Amino acid sequence: MAQAQASKFKNPLVNWIDSRLPIFTMLDHEYNHYPMPRNVNYLWAFGAIAGIMLVVMIATGLFLAMQYSSHTSLAFDSVERIMRDVNYGWLLRYVHANGASMFFIAVYIHMFRGLYYGSYKAPREILWILGVIIFLVMMGTAFMGYVLPWGQMSFWGATVITNLFSAFPIVGDPIVTLLWGGFSVDNPTLNRFFALHFLLPFVLLGLVILHTAALHVCGSNNPLGIEPKGPQDTVPFNPYVTLKDGFAVVVFFIVFAAFVFFMPNYMGHPDNYIPANPLVTPAHIVPEWYFLPFYAILRAIPDKLGGVIAMFGSIALLLVLPWLDTSKVRSCKFRPIYRQFFWILAIDGLVLGYAGAMPAEGSWLLIARIGTFYYFFHFLVLLPVLGKLERPLPLPNSISEAVLKGGAHAKPMEKA
Amino acid sequence: MAQTTHPPGTGGHAASGDGSTRRDFLYLATGAVGVVGAASAAWPFISSMNPAADTLALASIDVDLAPVAEGQAITVTWRGKPVFVRHRNAKEIEEAKTVNLGDLRDPASDESRVKKPEWLIVVGICTHLGCVPLGQKVTDPRGDFDGWFCPCHGSHYDTAGRIRKGPAPANLVLPPYAFTSDTKIRLG
């Protein structure tokens, strides 16, 4: 005879549920007592920030979907109706549009944090790979969302991105026809993009749950890149990390609100307030800022198929990053040479982004080519070779010893 | 919950006289501010589901009564709902006026239901479960009282749109309207 398992909660209702479905025990374990390295800095808050941005996007998106029409003859006007007639429609749309940018800002900081502190290294490879998959799904979702207002940038962005697949020999054209559901970007395309734009955030939510589950198996990395050796090296998640993350979220939201309320179209493009016209391409078309580095890579290669492969390759590289980096030391703090190249990579990303926004000619094309070369050189040559050649600085014996300077007072934190 | 969320090793437990601590107060104050913040954030979402400005702009319409002959009825759409406009003849007015109010389920005099005796204007939705009653065309069944008959569950309305028989609890609703001239009305 099966028996309900014992639950430690005093509240009788909570106890009754918990002894049948131990969600309260799980939450208590994963978000209350869960040990976090005591030295994590504010860069570690961006995972939580990204998670909250996903919730903000799903919430605003749901209410926008209640007012939006995914038909080519209605889409643009329905978005304008949201802006002018729907109560707080302007707020929902600006939060959603700027929220996409803020989501990418949070995720990019989160990724560069992982790169700097070596968070992708064993045993966190699957955690990292799940993160790269989340990034890819996010890019697809953001792209399809940008098509929905059916402005000029929506239409021509959709045309250019779907045409990427035409670069592949033989299968290319049938794939593009399949994506379009016709012979050009048209109503069937808009309809399926809306359906997928609604679905993918929930796929993202599932991936984020897996990402978090994988994280909680081996625990968070930390700025020193060494594993906690005992309770003296950790603090309980609540209240230390909940409050720290909470404060970071508030500061992040202040910046977010500044965009929403004072410069809501700063990160957008004015051409998207012109209804889509399949007969006229805008003079200068660029993707949203968060795609610009990859767009620069696409244009840097003077070959259609080569450009597409380089662009997809630049992201696919990240999937095998844990095996490209041969160094056993995680944190850049103890890798004096690699640290410099890390910052060159960060600058390279910004340069590529800037070059992606400029016309693909003259010196901008040259700069994009140098930037593209460095990107691949960094991951494919520098990382494997440096791991062998570089002599890292000595690692501290433990987190508490390093952060308490000598460890004279390193005693276990009192039990929560 | 409070005892599990107290951080360890703090001086927050220095109890004041009544057993509550400064920390208890801070928890409650923070929680209260959080609830206000959450409610403020939720409001734009909820409000966006209410009728938008363009929907509200359609909330009033003008109707020209001149082409409607005596004995005829027309149906106009107002806020997405049918409104019955019936040009009553003398017999129908007489029927509506001579009813004993004590016999009615939802007592209302004929005078209280019209602005001009020959024009009866009601929302054409049965007060039972929202169907549109028959009776606008002369060929329609008009029920036992010469008004309207709802085919869904058999409610009978009289020539003043009052419920007389069947499951509906109330008379047909009177929309807000005014005569802008002798032959024109504005609904809403």
Automatic annotation (TrEMBL), chain A:
<dbReference type="InterPro" id="IPR005797">
    <property type="entry name" value="Cyt_b/b6_N"/>
</dbReference>
<feature type="binding site" description="axial binding residue">
    <location>
        <position position="110"/>
    </location>
    <ligand>
        <name>heme b b566</name>
    </ligand>
</feature>
<feature type="binding site" description="axial binding residue">
    <location>
        <position position="211"/>
    </location>
    <ligand>
        <name>heme b b566</name>
    </ligand>
</feature>
<feature type="transmembrane region" description="Helical">
    <location>
        <begin position="127"/>
        <end position="148"/>
    </location>
</feature>
<dbReference type="GO" id="GO:0022904">
    <property type="term" value="P:respiratory electron transport chain"/>
</dbReference>
<keyword id="KW-0472">Membrane</keyword>
<keyword id="KW-0812">Transmembrane</keyword>
<comment type="subunit">
    <text>The main subunits of complex b-c1 are: cytochrome b, cytochrome c1 and the Rieske protein.</text>
</comment>
<protein>
    <recommendedName>
        <fullName>Cytochrome b</fullName>
    </recommendedName>
</protein>
<feature type="transmembrane region" description="Helical">
    <location>
        <begin position="304"/>
        <end position="324"/>
    </location>
</feature>
<feature type="transmembrane region" description="Helical">
    <location>
        <begin position="193"/>
        <end position="214"/>
    </location>
</feature>
<dbReference type="Pfam" id="PF00032">
    <property type="entry name" value="Cytochrom_B_C"/>
</dbReference>
<dbReference type="Pfam" id="PF00033">
    <property type="entry name" value="Cytochrome_B"/>
</dbReference>
<comment type="similarity">
    <text>Belongs to the cytochrome b family.</text>
</comment>
<dbReference type="InterPro" id="IPR016174">
    <property type="entry name" value="Di-haem_cyt_TM"/>
</dbReference>
<dbReference type="InterPro" id="IPR036150">
    <property type="entry name" value="Cyt_b/b6_C_sf"/>
</dbReference>
<keyword id="KW-1133">Transmembrane helix</keyword>
<feature type="transmembrane region" description="Helical">
    <location>
        <begin position="94"/>
        <end position="115"/>
    </location>
</feature>
<dbReference type="InterPro" id="IPR048259">
    <property type="entry name" value="Cytochrome_b_N_euk/bac"/>
</dbReference>
<keyword id="KW-0813">Transport</keyword>
<keyword id="KW-0408">Iron</keyword>
<feature type="binding site">
    <location>
        <position position="216"/>
    </location>
    <ligand>
        <name>a ubiquinone</name>
    </ligand>
</feature>
From TrEMBL, chain B:
<keyword id="KW-0560">Oxidoreductase</keyword>
<dbReference type="GO" id="GO:0046872">
    <property type="term" value="F:metal ion binding"/>
</dbReference>
<feature type="domain" description="Rieske">
    <location>
        <begin position="113"/>
        <end position="186"/>
    </location>
</feature>
<dbReference type="GO" id="GO:0008121">
    <property type="term" value="F:quinol-cytochrome-c reductase activity"/>
</dbReference>
<dbReference type="GO" id="GO:0016491">
    <property type="term" value="F:oxidoreductase activity"/>
</dbReference>
<dbReference type="InterPro" id="IPR036922">
    <property type="entry name" value="Rieske_2Fe-2S_sf"/>
</dbReference>
<feature type="transmembrane region" description="Helical">
    <location>
        <begin position="25"/>
        <end position="46"/>
    </location>
</feature>
<dbReference type="InterPro" id="IPR006311">
    <property type="entry name" value="TAT_signal"/>
</dbReference>
<comment type="subunit">
    <text>The main subunits of complex b-c1 are: cytochrome b, cytochrome c1 and the Rieske protein.</text>
</comment>
<dbReference type="Pfam" id="PF10399">
    <property type="entry name" value="UCR_Fe-S_N"/>
</dbReference>
<dbReference type="InterPro" id="IPR019470">
    <property type="entry name" value="Ubiq_cytC_Rdtase_Fe-S_su_TAT"/>
</dbReference>
<dbReference type="InterPro" id="IPR017941">
    <property type="entry name" value="Rieske_2Fe-2S"/>
</dbReference>
<keyword id="KW-0813">Transport</keyword>
<dbReference type="InterPro" id="IPR005805">
    <property type="entry name" value="Rieske_Fe-S_prot_C"/>
</dbReference>
<keyword id="KW-1003">Cell membrane</keyword>
<keyword id="KW-1278">Translocase</keyword>
<dbReference type="InterPro" id="IPR006317">
    <property type="entry name" value="Ubiquinol_cyt_c_Rdtase_Fe-S-su"/>
</dbReference>
<keyword id="KW-0249">Electron transport</keyword>
<keyword id="KW-0001">2Fe-2S</keyword>
<dbReference type="InterPro" id="IPR019546">
    <property type="entry name" value="TAT_signal_bac_arc"/>
</dbReference>
<keyword id="KW-0408">Iron</keyword>
<dbReference type="GO" id="GO:0005886">
    <property type="term" value="C:plasma membrane"/>
</dbReference>
